[in-house]
Amino acid sequence: MHSVVQGVVDAVPDGAARPSGLADGVYHGLLTEIAGGTYGENQKLPSENELASRYKVSRPVVRAALERLRRESIIVSRQGAGSFVRGKSRAPALGYAPVESIADIQRCYEFRLTIEPEAARYAALRRNGPALERIATALDLMNTATRQQQHRDDADFAFHLAIAEASNNHYYGASLQALQSHIAVGMKIHGLALLGPNSGLQGVLDEHRAIFAAIRDGDAETARDRMHRHICSSRDRLFEGRMLDLSL
User: Fold this and answer.
1) pTM here?
2) Between 102-126 and 201-216, two packed helices, what is the crossing angle to 10 degrees?
3) Which of 6, 54, 55, 76 has its CA 20 to 30 A from that of 95?
């Protein structure tokens, strides 16, 4: 059975499976997982053989992707030990106040609704093969977690970040990265709400698949609408339809 990533490679027009494109796909896939928290600071990455098997590419392709991550100071190689994620102290933090209340979670959802639907719209207009592969990689992680009756908020965030980056507007990606810890609070609580005898995991996965399909198909308006509905639905599931009055 093909993964979502393989399906993208088969479906992208103009024959996207170039050697450099393969290395870009591995690079962006790892970058998305690092940004999404799958691999944390100082954590070791899988071996070259494991990555080659996962991405269905050769070891030289994996080496090229790892070399790019090293050049950009995202990972560091330790002789005889492998590749590790660097600490993030080098990146300046943006000045969003931390989440301190339920009201802040609601505010975060409100802010996401002002940026993520438009990011999805532009992603549908501007995406290319490697960008679709990055989104699909995160979707594959979510699919695996759903089959195991789990919610991976790191993969969920990686999916949304990959869409923001596919917009080819770095302001969207930078905004989501700055909000990662804030968004994670809502995603974690939302994930807990999906578990139980009446699991909503499959429905949420289907929402993500629908967003991906619209972006893949270049349907900008549908991508925007589906992202808007998804974030609203996530918020409503978390708050059970009872929104706080945030009037001054």
Assistant:
1) 0.65
2) 30
3) 76
